[in-house]
Amino acid sequence: MADPDVRPRAVPGPGDDMTGRVARPGPIAGPGGDTTAPGGPPRLAAGPNGTTTAPLAPPHSTPAPGATPLRFGYGTNGLADLRLDDALTLLADLGYDGVGLTLDHMHLDPLASDLAERTRRLAHRLDALGLTVTIETGARYVLDPRRKHGPSLLDPDPDDRARRVDLLVRAVQVAADLGAHAVHCFSGVTPPGTDPDTAWKRLAETLTPVLDTAATAGIPLAIEPEPGHLLANLADFHHLRTALGDPAALGLTLDIGHCQCLEPLSPAECVRAAGPWLRHMQIEDMRRGVHEHLPFGDGDIDFPPVLAALADTGYQGLTVVELPRHSHAGPHFAELSLPFLHQAVALSQGSTP
Questions:
Q1: pTM for this one?
Q2: Tens of pLDDT along 300-348?
């Protein structure tokens, strides 16, 4: 999650007027909150231009037989005030399956001269705690103390672009040493004065050496559609994938909140549509048209159908809670989030939590 400053204007769409969402804290408010009219077809999702898109599959809330059990993690960008070992111990004690590790100065500094040794020690610690890991690269100022998320893969200066490429290559190497299931990345915001064709060309060119490294290491590079960025939605992901020739190392980071924020499909339908390319998942609550990561229960998302859809895809990686602006109360929200997700899973399977 790159935490951009751009926040789209609120628009109506899937997720509005939902009922049956998992409450925080407390019981379920309604009978399931599906988006299907009684006796009728699934409701069409309103697109950004007022068009409608039919769901790719009938929505349902019970995972198919043999659906993959989900594994949950919490992002260290939401625990930035804790030492890394304290954060990992907390997550293990709370029962999380893993951690979304953002490479940053306060935790595992990707520019440290002793990065290899720190990574080796971290691998032993993760193994001792029984935590799996995915590597995230959304640190705000790790490369430039004056530019948030700068430089990006789209910067006009080729030397600046090379610095971001170097960070991602280091991230892949760290991921390989830790046995991570993916490396997350994002495109960045299109710089002023840069036309779209040039921006897409830069993105493809800068990602190519990272993808080569990822392919050699056997680590998927999972790019995240980020509101306000060049690659902002699922359609943009497929544009990049096609432009690059559909490389096997390129996958998708899908943020459930972002689906609620701006995709024409509902979050559950986004999960089904993205299934073949899912390599990393991020999850939090969000409202339609407002890019603000919220604790569960504070937004509009109906989570049981989302988690049922995710289980049906066969996704085997971590689903990581992303609350980077809640680090001031990180342990509190980490403690609340996992029971909420387990309750939502139980409801998605037709069980009483």
A1: 0.82
A2: 999 999 999 999 999 999 999 999 999 999 999 999 999 999 999 999 9
Residues 6 or more apart in contact with residue 275 via CB below 8 angstroms: 312, 313, 314, 315
For 71, the token pair is 């594994």
Question: CA-to-CA distance for 302 and 334, rounded, in angstroms?
Answer: 20
Distance CA 141, CA 158 (A): 19
Q: Amino acid identity, residue 339?
A: P
